[in-house]
Amino acid sequence: MSTPAPAEIGMPLDEVDTPALLLDLDVFERNMDKLAKATAASGIRLRPHAKTHKCPSIARAQIARGAVGVCCQKVGEAEAMVAGGVQDVYVSNEIVGRSKLERLAALAKQATISLAVDNADNVAQIEAAAAKFDARINVYVEIAAGMRRCGVDPGPEAVALARAVKAAPHLHFAGLQAYHGSAQHIRGFDDRRKAIDVAAEAAVTTRDLLRQASIDCPLITGAGTGTFRFEMGSGIWGELQCGSYVFMDADYGRNLDQGGKPGGEFEHSLFVWATVMSRPVRERAVLDVGLKGVATDCGMPLLDGVANVTYERASDDHGVLKVGDTNHPLAVGDKIKLIPGHCDPTVNLYDWYVGIRNNRVEALWPITARGMLR
Amino acid sequence: MSTPAPAEIGMPLDEVDTPALLLDLDVFERNMDKLAKATAASGIRLRPHAKTHKCPSIARAQIARGAVGVCCQKVGEAEAMVAGGVQDVYVSNEIVGRSKLERLAALAKQATISLAVDNADNVAQIEAAAAKFDARINVYVEIAAGMRRCGVDPGPEAVALARAVKAAPHLHFAGLQAYHGSAQHIRGFDDRRKAIDVAAEAAVTTRDLLRQASIDCPLITGAGTGTFRFEMGSGIWGELQCGSYVFMDADYGRNLDQGGKPGGEFEHSLFVWATVMSRPVRERAVLDVGLKGVATDCGMPLLDGVANVTYERASDDHGVLKVGDTNHPLAVGDKIKLIPGHCDPTVNLYDWYVGIRNNRVEALWPITARGMLR
Predict the structure, then answer these.
(1) pLDDT the model gives residue A68
(2) Which three-class secondary structure string do you get for chain B?
(3) Interface contact A107, partner B, CB < 8 A
């Protein structure tokens, strides 16, 4: 059962019921334009990560600005993207098990499908699924690029995997997945750059070993919103996978730029619209948005445009605000905007984006990959 | 768009794809029977909290064992419960705004509906909505019972609110909401008891003031899985609102009993079914369950039946395991059960319970109140 839409097209923002996921369309479009322009100028490909937004309407807007397609983490996300008109999807993740791989192979009959691999048995499973549907799947070998998660060590094991992929009749060796996820949130500019230097060395080492083995490496793909300038300038990566840049969350806002200032180059476009539901004492207000309405894994949300008030703690359905010396009345019924600490898991709590322009609802976009965990 | 069911009835557990939310039906029924028996013996009413399970199939199973109805936190949850056959729903929370209150009033034409209040203007709004639909709504005055969230201070303000409710033609003053949420997770037995002593004093003080004002207080309602034995034994509360007892999460498992042992009196029935998707090095395995598949606000999930392996960190779609000296191979493709740190927000990530008995799928229950934030 999907939840009903929280608004109607044309409705003033003030009338939109809460909790709701708001998208400031002007800011959102500026963010998309900015990265599209930067990647076009550098000659590098952009394949934004759809795990962030889970919404084909947004994927199509990215593709309309030059993106070659999208990344996903789950087969269900890829299915939702293809169903929503996306023709080129890279599942930048290991996919294990017959059921999921056959779904992916079937999807590859409808669209261009790629995925990542870090295990030789898995290559055989992917080939079996692709053969069953007579489908062709592009495969990237994921190398460990510094974040201690998936991926084989850069070296002979990666070469052996690439060779196994090349030997599989229905698979195409597409290159290397080299993504340093944990580097995205390193605060210091130089520290982030050093982390990407390590990832770059891993990628180059492996590419050189592939060359020595007479295996061409068509592409190295990776990067995120926190580090893409480094990958883009490296001459090593040919494709960027940034996701959060469309929204910018509070956590990315804490990253420092080269001058030591926080904020980064994108603006907050994603907000959770909340109502003050209780105001028991002067120092405390309670919002109708708690753990089920905003992700707290990267810290509590920030209040947009309300000074000296902090979102102190979340329970399932309540957010408790600590109210300092503020001009905002925070009266019961008042609505405010929260900036999520982490946009990806926040989006996954909602079924709809409420797109706002000039304080009016202009778009209602279903988040069709919401909850697509398999 | 709701996600497809992750299994078929009759399927062996091993074939159920991951991530999926598993319910061990034998344990789940034992948990329900245990609390039903305890409340029946004490003569106290049980109104389990449906914010935990968000599923009318579970609500009906609780009611079949003697529960008088369920609690909810959101109007959308109440709508899902009534649509699923529940005839008596208490929204144990403040509901603000015309749109939500009119939905609640309309629902009160189909079922017995109650809600909580801590603000005089809100009483007038509830009356207006009820009048518009010529509906009758039961109203509890929420008092601050120790958790520093919603609720008026025990005292004259509570009496004034009760008087306002009594004066409203379509509202019925049903009693006091006295719930100490943060006490549920205080580890020490005596410390939890002391916290409930404070809540009890708040409730008794207010009830006595109501009596002095010639206002009868029909019921005091509250309590949760961590403290219900205290409320039940107090002679003050007439209704318990326990929710998590049906599932028992890892965090409740860390509460200490009177003897100083952790665990409490209920067993874990709820699990997240996960697959090892990568095994890059001996010390590390990666699961296909991350922040979007299990709540981490009360700590990382535990592994069921796998010793010396810990779920170390979660990213959006990955769970990184630290592998110590274990007999479990944790090979790519192996499936394991995770015990969520916090059941309520974990359930809210899924659309289906996969009910398991004797290692076979016996039930597929839609989580129809999933995402019902409004």
Answers:
(1) 98
(2) CCCCCCCCCCCEHHHCCCCEEEEEHHHHHHHHHHHHHHHHHHCCEECCECCCCCCHHHHHHHHHCCCCCEEECCHHHHHHHHHCCCCEEEEEEECCCHHHHHHHHHHCCCCEEEEEECCHHHHHHHHHHHHHCCCCEEEEEEECCCCCCCCECCCHHHHHHHHHHHHCCCEEEEEEECCCCHHHHCCCHHHHHHHHHHHHHHHHHHHHHHHHCCCCCCCEEECCCCCHHHHHHHCCCCEECCCHHHCCCCCHHHCECCCCCECCCCCCCEEEEEEEEEEEECCEEEECCCCCCCCCCCCCCEECCCCCEEEEEECCCCEEEEECCCCCCCCCCCEEEEECCCHHHHHCCCCEEEEEECCEEEEEEECCCCCCCC
(3) no
Residue of B nearest to A143 (CA): B280
Given the structure tokens 């039930």, which residue do they identify? B363
Q: Hey, are the CB atoms on B152 and A100 less than 8 Å from each other?
A: no
Q: Is B295 on the interface with A (CB under 8 A)?
A: yes
Q: Which residues pair with A270 in a beta bridge?
A: A23
- For this complex, say whether ipTM is above 0.90: yes
Q: What is the number of other CB atoms lying within 10 angstroms of the CB of residue B96?
A: 24
For residues A29-39, average pLDDT: 98
Q: Is the pLDDT of residue A316 over 80?
A: yes
* Segment A75-101 mean pLDDT: 98
340-359 in chain B: CB under 8 A from chain A: 342, 344-345, 348-351
Q: How far is B195 from chain A (nearest CA, A)?
A: 18
Q: How many contacts does A have with B, using Cβ atoms within 8 A?
A: 189
Contacts of B349 in chain A (CB under 8 A): 348, 371, 373
Tens-digit pLDDT profile for residues B239-270 = 999 999 999 999 999 999 999 999 889 999 99
Residue to test with chain B: of A21, A225, A316, A348, most B Cβ within 10 A: A316
Q: Does the structure show a pLDDT above 70 at B104?
A: yes
